[in-house]
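Take a sample.
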Amino acid sequence: VGEDVNMVLNRRLSRHPAHCVYADQQAAAEAVVDKLVAMGHREIAFIAGSADSPTGAERLAGYRQALIRHGIPVQETLIAPGKWTPACGAAAVSTLLARGARFSALVASNDDMAIGAIKRLHEAGVMVPDEVSVVGFDDIPLAPYVIPALSSVKMPVNGMIQETINRLTTMVEEGSRDALPAFSGTLIRRDSLRRLTGGAMMAVGRPGGIR
């Protein structure tokens, strides 16, 4: 395959739109916040991915943009850094609690961090989803088997791989250079997500636990 028919998977190339297959990570994160707001949540925490990750940056941007669109102030105290691992998710929750952050829902930039977050919330005496709803990204195979089963945004990885193969074949055989539309994520709702009824149930963090 010549250089001019190379394809990049899971990255948006604004200067070479015909040579990339990607999911719109920002739109997926916006859709998660839209769903949480529709379910009554307004104080929504976020665990970011690695600072140097385009995927993490887009998901954080989507979180911010959705809050702004709904007229909800972006509170920096509700955003904690992470680096994709369960331990980082747990540490991020510890950071939120130490800040005294109030939130009824938490979005983690991937499922591993969401699982770590659930464990730390449990250790702090916070019930998921009764007090805090938790949503992750990527719908890993473990997501349905943690307790509570993790709600997650499923990214169409298999479809993207197949489309990359198809596009390479088409480029070689027909020379097509049309840009492809972005793939979309799908929220898979499980037990870690609940609708707020009546007054919002807010988690109040403080060093050593929750009140």
User: Anything to note?
Assistant: The chain has one domain: 17-192. Residues 30 and 170 are 33 Å apart (CA to CA).
